[in-house]
Amino acid sequence: MMTLDPIWQPPLQQRVYRALLEAHSFPGRVIDLPVELGDQPATLAVLATLLDTSTSFCDADGLISPEDQLRLEAPSATADDADFVLFQADLAPPDGFKPRLGDVYHPHEGATLVLGGRSIVEGHTRFELSGPGVESTQPLNLTGFDTAWFAQREQWISAYPTGVDLILCDASRITAIPRTTMMRSLIEAPSTEGGRA
């Protein structure tokens, strides 16, 4: 009988879910995911935990294997229409990308963007976060995240309470930036770390 990796089993998914709850409760706080994930990436752990048959998904940069796509069980959608969209963070947002923002009566229908980058604990792309869940300010240092994502985010959240939520991941850690969080750039790396074909 085939045994599924822990990432697809409820005990580990429950622990990842608790990590996600903590990340959203304390924006910008970096949360280590369980070591039992092994070499499975944090992005996949997040998706395996949050997606099901009722949540649409777009793997915009083809980062998930076909086998894992099937295990996620989430219906496919375009990047502009999906509930959750996965991106390679060192590439700038695609030209013309317009994520779902919800509306004033249904702000919860805005998309969640999952960005996978090199590091969410160190780097020359530096931000200071403030807002609900942040006591005073919270520093956030990144490597492998094109700064165009955060410039675009300012536009996407400009009509409160609509907008998008971000989940930033490196290999084994996550942090969340809800739409209610303010980000102030301290030192920005150039927005040219990678280009899309």
Automatic annotation (TrEMBL):
It comes from the Bacteria. The keyword Membrane does not apply. GO terms for biological process: organic phosphonate metabolic process. SUPFAM superfamilies: PhnH-like. One of its GO terms (molecular function) is alpha-D-ribose 1-methylphosphonate 5-triphosphate synthase activity. Its EC number is 2.7.8.37. Transmembrane segments: none annotated. It holds the Pfam family PhnH. Keywords: Transferase. This is Alpha-D-ribose 1-methylphosphonate 5-triphosphate synthase subunit PhnH. It comes from Algisphaera agarilytica.
